[in-house]
Design brief:
The chain is mainly β. The protein is about 0% helix and about 50% strand.
Length: about 170
């Protein structure tokens, strides 16, 4: 199996200015607000090298779900085990039908420090919103560092997640 992970991270906002301060010479213009984005393809030959991918639609049960990175349901009667790998890319998207935010973060038991946030912090994804994390430096999954928790007051909220890992 080989994995090619294509990513694009960019936000560009164009503000149209109306500079009619001097009525004798009205000028309009645009101001571009932008941070140059990152884009590319990560493979087994890049740094970081990508070796595996997992994706799933997750439905919370009683407002909670735990993702165990050592026992990921692969949908074909097998589980994926990401032990000794690191998360390099993670994309999360909440369904538009959700009625409350979904908070994701480090698992309460054997927690994996979720992408770019502190061990006791979470990030929220609202209905129809999404987040893409690119993490060139990450923590290796192990038997004591392996879970990501999701919680919401919408007891059956749904989100889609894609995780890519490498050594």
């Amino acid at each position: 199996m080989t994995v090619d992970a294509q990513y694009t991270l960019k936000l560009k906002a164009i503000e149209t200015l109306n500079n009619n301060r001097d009525l004798s010479t009205p000028t309009d213009g645009e101001y571009v607000h932008e941070i140059p984005g990152s884009f590319g393809t990560a493979t087994s030959a890049t740094t970081p090298a990508i070796s595996a991918v997992w994706s799933k639609t997750v439905t919370l049960s009683s407002g909670a779900a735990t993702i165990d990175l050592t026992a990921l349901d692969n949908g074909d009667l097998t589980n994926l085990d990401f032990t000794a790998t690191k998360i390099y890319y993670c994309h999360v998207k909440a369904r538009t039908t959700n009625t409350a935010l979904i908070s994701l973060g480090t698992g309460a038991t054997n927690g994996y420090p979720f992408p770019g946030i502190g061990a006791s912090d979470t990030f929220d994804v609202g209905a129809g919103n999404e987040a893409l994390f690119r993490m060139p430096v990450s923590t290796a999954v192990s038997s004591t560092v392996k879970t990501i928790d999701a919680a919401s007051s919408d007891v059956d909220a749904i989100f889609d997640i894609v995780i890519t890992v490498g050594a």
